[in-house]
Amino acid sequence: MSDPLKDASPHSGEPKEELLALALEAARRAGDLLRDGRPADLGVAATKTSPIDVVTEMDIASEKLITGFLAEHRPEDGFLGEEGASSEGTSGIRWVIDPIDGTVNYLYGLPSWAVSIAAQKDGETIVGVVAAPVRGETSHAVLGGGAFLNGAPVRVRPAPPLSQALVGTGFGYVAERRAAQAAVLGSVLPQVRDIRRGGSAAIDLCDVACGRLDAYYERGLNPWDYAAGELIAREAGALTGGRPGDPVSPDLTVAASPAVFEALQPLLEDLGAWHD
């Protein structure tokens, strides 16, 4: 069997395959560190937008591991990471990294957290990897190459009517935004089968990809939250977007089986899900 890292030299194979091999290995290493090295007395290292939007020492360690590994193999690439990694690079490739997506879950010892790594070329996501070590799952996609869970191809669930759709969502950490999101949810809930709130946008997007959710929406995500998962969902056959006619963005992220998307997106627009 070939060594994916040996094969992933700047002079071998297709660039996307090189980037995928590196992303998979970086996510594996970070996931092992986070799963096996979690301190029993793990505490909060800092807060971000509010006292409940936390950073742990392990978020910081994971991002350092990922950026160090990728920079060793591709020193001319840029980075955008949740915990502060930011550089333009000169290669046209930028890595978008969430070292722990679902930090609150991780802090509490819940299993739904993931390492999310995307590679973008000139602003377009071309590789996405989401590793959820406690779930024993790694999802990945290469632009134009389909979506995979633990190496097996996945597709979105055949779309039910919106009234029978299982919909995932999430909430921000600032009180005013949470209140607005709760109001939207109150109007969405009677119109769908049920709502799930997993606590990791990356995992929710992958759950759309493999048919565990019919749809997912959320306001207030950052690029590192959705970059990898959005590509994986799209490559599995989901439609993705923000407000009608717009791509996914911090204003709104929607991913769903096509028929569910076509019903859910205008509903969210009418309900003002894109503003606080």
Automatic annotation (TrEMBL):
PANTHER family, sorted: INOSITOL MONOPHOSPHATASE, INOSITOL-1-MONOPHOSPHATASE-RELATED
What is the protein name stated in its UniProt record? Inositol-1-monophosphatase
Which keywords describe this protein according to UniProt?
Hydrolase, Magnesium, Metal-binding
Q: Which reaction does it catalyse?
A: a myo-inositol phosphate + H2O = myo-inositol + phosphate
* Family note: Belongs to the inositol monophosphatase superfamily.
What taxonomic classification does the UniProt entry list for its organism? Bacteria, Bacillati, Actinomycetota, Actinomycetes, Kitasatosporales
Where are its TM segments located?
A: none
Q: What is its EC number?
A: 3.1.3.25
Per the UniProt entry, the signal peptide is: none
InterPro entries per record: IMPase, Inositol_monoP_metal-BS, Inositol_monophosphatase-like, Inositol_monophosphatase_CS
CC cofactor: Mg(2+)
Which top-rank group of organisms is this from? Answer: Bacteria
